[in-house]
Amino acid sequence: MVSLFLIFSGICNGQQASPSTDEPQPPNKRILGIIPNYRTFPTLTDYKPLTAEEKFKIAFNDSFDRGTFVLAAAFAGQGQLSKSDPSFGQGIEGYSHYLGAAYADLAIGDFMTEAIYPTILHQDPRYFRRGEGNGFARLGYAMGQIFWTHKDSGGTQFNYSEVVGNSTAVAISTAYYPEGRDWGSAASKLGVQIGVDMAGNVLKEFWPDLQRKLSRHHKEPDATN
Questions:
Q1: Spatial distance between the Cα atoms of 172 and 159, rounded to a whole number of angstroms
Q2: In DSSP terms, which residues pair with 31 in a beta bridge?
Q3: Residues 52, 54, 58: CA angle, nearest 5 degrees
Q4: Per-position DSSP letters for 96-140, written without gaps between them
């Protein structure tokens, strides 16, 4: 983990990614072998909008990917350890409640932000990588796509799908979270969900760079033999 952080820091500290002259390749389906990565697109060149069916396919793939279940299991464990919802209880039964709620959060959020609202509002749910330039500029670009997105027509506008979609998901979650149904808790949960999506954008932007650097890092010992 420390080496991963150092590699990422090296990317941000002024190092530039080398633009590829090859045709854009589809991204790996998972980041770190866990985090679903179906809506990353390598470039805005020759932009083509998605159909409603394609938007729902992205949401479906993200929601039912094995990595989403792994993430839900991890969030459920964290929730049970911190007793974030005491009414769920402890033990296996309590964990099953946490797991179901955590998975519902992820799946509902995916469908709201990647399919339903993008279809209604004609917005593109994909993350378009910048892929080159100064690391900090790319970091700002990745974080900014949470609030500013592309329209199906090719222009840009405020990312209503992200903010309103996650707000809707939080509102729905009050049906299966017995506690924390006040405005303060809802605002906090919305902030967490947007923060998680923002972190996901950063990973999507830099993951190919990290992969290349990690690959070279692992090959270096072999070169000395």
A1: 20
A2: 35
A3: 115
A4: HHHHHHHHHHHHHHHHIIIIIHHHHHTB---EE---SB-HHHHHH
Nearest-angstrom CA–CA distance, 180 and 79 = 13
SS3 of residue 34 by DSSP: coil
Tell how far CA 218 is from the center of its chain: 27
Distance between CA atoms of 158 and 217, rounded to whole angstroms? 40
Asked if 58 and 38 touch (Cβ cutoff 8 Å), the reply is: yes
Give phi and psi for 24, each to the nearest 5.
-60, 135
DSSP character for 178?
S
Whole-angstrom Cα Rg for the chain: 19
Cβ contact 135:210 at 8 Å:
no
Residue 157, strand partner residues: 149
Q: Which residue has the tokens 């990290």?
A: 210
What the block records as the tokens of 181 is 């149904």
Task: Give the Cα separation of 180 and 182 in Å (integer).
Answer: 6
Model pTM score: 0.81
pLDDT tens digits for the chain (225 residues)? Answer: 444 444 444 545 544 444 443 434 445 788 988 899 999 998 888 899 999 999 999 999 999 999 999 999 999 999 999 999 999 999 999 999 999 999 999 999 999 999 999 999 999 999 999 988 899 999 999 999 999 999 999 899 999 999 999 999 999 999 999 887 889 889 999 999 999 999 999 999 999 888 888 776 655 555 444
Residue 115 · residue 125 · CB < 8 Å: yes
